[in-house]
Amino acid sequence: MRPSDIAFRLYLVALFTFVFLPILTSMVFSLNSDRFPTVPLGEVTTHWYETAFSRPEVWTAFGNSLIVAVCAAALSTTLGFVTAYTDFRYGFRFKPAYLALALLPPTIPLVIMGLAMLAWLGRLGISGTLPGIIVAHTVMGAPFAMAICRLRLSQMDPALEAAAWNLGASQWRAMRAVVIPFCLPALISAYCLTAAVSFDEFIVAWFVSGLNKTVPVMILEILQGNVDPQINAIGTVVFLTSMALVIIAQLLILRKTNA
Amino acid sequence: MTDSDPLVRFSGVRKTYGTFEAVKHLDLDIGRGEFVAIMGPSGCGKTTTLRMLAGLEEPTAGEITIDGRVMNEVSAHDRDTPLVWQSLALFPFLNVKENVEFGLRMRGVPKADRHGRAMLWLERLGLKGFETRRIDQLSGGQRQRVALARSLVTEPRMLLLDEPLSALDAHLVIRMQGVLTRLQKELGITFVYVTHSQSEAFAMADRVVIMGHGEIAQIGRPQEIFRAPRNRFVAEFVGRNNILPGDKPGHELVVAADRMQVSASDPGEGALAAEFLSEEFAGTGIICYFEGPEGVELKAQVTEDQLDDLSPEPGQRFWLNWAPGAAHVMAGI
Fold first, then answer.
1. What is the Cα–Cα distance from B156 to B187, expressed in whole angstroms?
2. Nearest-by-Cβ selection for A173 from B91, B92, B106
3. Is the N or C terminus of chain A more exposed, i.e. has fewer CB atoms within 10 Å?
4. Does the CB of A170 have a partner CB in chain B at under 8 Å?
5. Which ipTM value was assigned to this complex?
């Protein structure tokens, strides 16, 4: 191996250590019997998981997060796919503006987004409700879903859809029989990714959730009270859930790119 | 409707995109069971013509009738005009059999019937045993045949082909030409074949339509077009022709390269003196290029033996002449 290769490998190891060490630490302490995060470690225990998940509000928060993630991901993916398809299929005068607007939400500072959502959802009367959080997370997730769907559609031969019409499929039929099956890996991938975005999202959810707390909001509330390894336990579960979603999304994106 | 009526009629068809006129004016009849090739350089309007016939583009003006029925308002999916695409456009998420069944599925043919008809066509095109293969596991030639089977499985009266062989290797092109002409004869249906390759058009078509700048430049049997091009555009597009000034103003002579004789000494009889430029091996013979009077480029096709005898050097002087009947006169334009 050449020195540059060794250096590159070391760099990679250092990079990943830097990124994942804090999360790994949290995981380790979630299984540690000591009350405080200190070295040397105590015994291995699942005690913190047991206490954390014996609290009803933890279950409620997980339930809320799950409902929000499932719904927001479905809406984001639908919206993202439709936007991407419009871009793929039609040319129109204000298309650059249309695309810029569709991709804008991630560039808005989250605090501003949270405040704006709070004000707007309040006027609609759904602030503090699960539908309110779902709306907010859909706005945040749709651009990601759109980016993934656009990537997939850019790999589609434009003749494919026309070939379906040519073989007797109406526009809707061609959409169902050709465009959606072709984009299916991207749709699943977008669904997982937007679900992960929603599941993790704290700031906007904190503004709009009110009494219906999602998991990240609940974690903060527990943290404000005391430092407790239960947080590590809950954090680990959250991290593993979103990691699993993101990994599924990535695998699907990579596989379809190679195909 | 009688059998002598044309299957397809374009009358005064025009297609514009903004200010660009893809097809300026098209009057064309296509008969039943005819193999018609529409040929021309890229941007001549040939693909637009085909797409209008399939209902993928709507004519800006004029009328297209199929079997006497005006098709302008009929949407693509209600037409019986399957198209073999240049990119083939096979569905990558379906296997071979599912691709072939697609048209039947869209038309609501029951499953058992679909299966039987798809298998019949797969067998007919030599794809038996490939039913469950994925499209990306097939060779170019096999994909070509899947595309054909997919279009023919609904037993249409007419098949449209848009440069289907352009992605194949030369030896496969010849083989697929054989497959296509045989299929067309056996099925007795109309083939409308769009191509920029004159070898494909001339090898397969009963009638060739040459298009240029959105208009028909000439329609005729391959020999007619090759031997008697109507104007300079056709003569130049067909290639391997010498275009020479005629006896009268506005007249031009066309002499095919294979009818041009090369001699090392002046044979008299009005032979043209020309300087040798280069030679090019062209499969059926060797094309020699010369610079004739007033800088005009001349081509003559010779055999390998003749080339050895002449052993031309660049800049060397030769005389080119042709038999009196070999020249075709183009009047006007």
1. 10
2. B106
3. N
4. yes
5. 0.84
Nearest CA in chain B to A259: B136
Cβ distance of B77 and A181 shorter than 8 Å: no
Instruction: Taking each helix axis as running N to C, give the angle between helix A180-200 and helix A130-154, from 0 to 180 degrees, rounded to the nearest 10.
Output: 140
What is the torsional sign of CA B145, B150, B154, B157? negative
CA distance B94 to chain A (A): 9
CA dihedral of B41, B44, B50, B55, whole degrees rounded to 10: 150
Which residues in chain A touch residue B102, judged by CB atoms under 8 angstroms apart? Answer: 164, 167, 177
The structure's pTM equals: 0.83
Find all residues with CB under 8 Å of B110, minimum gap 6, and list them: none
Residues of A in contact with B56 (CB under 8 A): 162, 165-166
3-state DSSP of chain B: CCCCCCCEEEEEEEEEECCEEEEEEEEEEECCCCEEEEECCCCCCHHHHHHHHHCCCCCCEEEEEECCEECCCCCHHHCCCCEECCCCCCCCCCEHHHHHHHHHHHCCCCHHHHHHHHHHHHHHCCCCCCCCCEHHHCCHHHHHHHHHHHHHCCCCCEEEEECCCCCCCHHHHHHHHHHHHHHHHHHCCEEEEEECCHHHHHHHCCEEEEEECCEEEEEECHHHHHHCCCCHHHHHHHCCEEEEECCCCCEEEEEEHHHCEEECCCCCCCCEEEEEEEEEECCCCEEEEEECHHHCEEEEEECHHHHHHHCCCCCCEEEEECCHHHEEEEECC
- The size of the A-B interface in CB pairs under 8 A is 66
- pLDDT tens, per residue, chain A with 259 residues: 788 899 999 999 999 999 999 889 989 988 888 887 777 888 888 888 998 889 898 999 999 999 999 999 999 999 999 999 999 999 999 999 999 999 999 999 999 999 999 999 999 999 889 999 999 999 999 999 999 999 999 999 999 999 999 999 999 999 999 999 999 999 999 999 999 999 989 999 999 988 889 999 998 888 887 778 888 899 899 999 999 999 988 888 777 554 4
